[in-house]
Every structure is written in C-alpha cells, then in structure tokens.
C-alpha cells in the first residue's frame, strides 16, 4: 500500500517541521552524498519521527527533491548595465550557491544529480538557467559593441562557473560577514580576466 504524500486529514502541516526536515536533508546530502542519504538519518537530524517524513514525502528521492527546490533555484536574469557588471552579477549568484550552509550540497548535486530520479531534471533546469542568463549577457554585450560578434557563450560560461567553483573549493573560508565582499572582489578580477581574453585582438 502506497504511503500518502499528505498529512492525516484535518491535521495542518507544520511549517517548522517542513523547514527542519528540508534543512536536515540538505545538510545530510552535503555531508554524506546520495549513498549515505536515508530517511532515518534525515529524521534524526531534524529531530522528528520517521513517520512524519513519510506522511509528507513517500520516498527519499521525493524528500531530497523537495529540499532542493526549497533551497536551490535557477539563476535569475541580471540587471542590464554593461557586460562587465552583468558578468559580475552572474558570478556572484554562482558564488552564493556554493558557499554558506548549502555549499557542500551544491557540489554534491553537481556530481551526483544524474543518478537520482527527479533530481537530475531539477538540476538540469538550474544549469540551463545559467546558460540562458549567459547568452543574454553576451547578446547584449555584442549589441553594445563590448564583445566581438563571435564570442563563445559556452566557453565564457565554463570559464566563469568553473573558476568560481574551483575558487570556493581551494580557498580557505572567510567569516560570514566578509563573504560577500570577498566574493565581489574575486568576481571582478575574474571577469576582468575573462573580458581581456574575449576582446583581445
């Protein structure tokens, strides 16, 4: 008999339980990956009964997917300015994904999404949002004469996102209150490097 995906009739969902379970799921996935991700372990971290989780989500795949939907969204369109500022905005969005409480889970999902049913599609949508945003930035940059007409979007985005991920992984973490300033400083240096190569010659 399939488990219900909703709470018992007449009993309202407790938003605090939902939040604790989602936070615990993200923390556990970041620490242990899909191989170590179990409903029992999530329940223990969240301080709730396993039955409470199964009343909300019938499988561990559904649980992880909902937690990711709550904590990870796609790249949003950047505010039109000039190509340098737009690329810095994009880099900062990527930074915010890979640092802080959700950072480890973001790295895990980038590696493991393809083998988790449902999650692969969600992560593909997030990745596609990066491509859409980068294409729009390059298109505007070409129209304004800031970039050559043959600027390769894929190579530019690979360089930007790969550098951000590598920097987060290899640089000692900074205090939360210094995180945004450090990310912006690096993002500006990175974008200047990318643009210098994109416009060379």
UniProtKB/TrEMBL annotation:
Key words of the record: DNA-binding, Transcription, Transcription regulation
Keyword Transcription attributed: yes
Domain of life: Bacteria
GO molecular function term, any single one: DNA-binding transcription factor activity
DNA-binding feature ranges: 38-57
Domain HTH tetR-type stretches: 15-75
Keyword Transcription: yes
Membrane spanning stretches: none
The protein, known as: TetR family transcriptional regulator
